[in-house]
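Technical note accompanying the year-one report. For the benefit of new consortium partners, we illustrate the data format agreed upon in the data management plan: each record pairs a sequence with a structure-token string. No post-processing was applied to the example shown here.
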Amino acid sequence: MHNHSANEVTDLLRAWGAGDEQASAAVAPLVYDELRRQAQVALRREGDGHTLQTTALVHEAWLRLDAQHGMQWDSRTQFFAVAAQMMRRILVDHARRRQSLKRGAAPKQITLGAVDRAASAKPQSSLDPIDLVALDDALAKLEAKDPRKAALVKLRFFAGLSGDEAAAALGVSAATADRMWRYARAWLGVALADVTDRPV
């Protein structure tokens, strides 16, 4: 990506969305490293026990992205946010399948502190394991109540964006994003406490 402008990548993404297969082949190597970084962060945040490897997660997400025929890409930021959502969905689906195979096993515990640290941690940091199924269920409830705050959590936690980057992606000020994050954190704290019966 260092030798290619954001505008060039965006132009290729738009052409890909319009059905240009050559654009798809051209943009893939330009976004691959960032997709790998996102996958590594997502897998690290899930903790031990996941069965997917980084490359497999990237490839499965790419296949889902490639299936988004007619998708109108506005920017590379939007593309990576959607890619993060794809990875989240893949990991949640895998987590649900694992849970169904382990019926009767004690559910993982999750704390908002783990979510908060993960959202602000550097990619190489060691993070507490996260129960993606519990977090996904809580996010679905938050999304029904306030889609923008849920989007902020997804951008920070799953896409690995900083507070400022997430604010820019949502088109709000950093101060507004910070207020939204504090509200979302408190709201999710209650929702996750209900799931785990454990104070956060």
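Partners are asked to follow this layout when depositing records. Residues 21-46 form the longest helix (26 residues).
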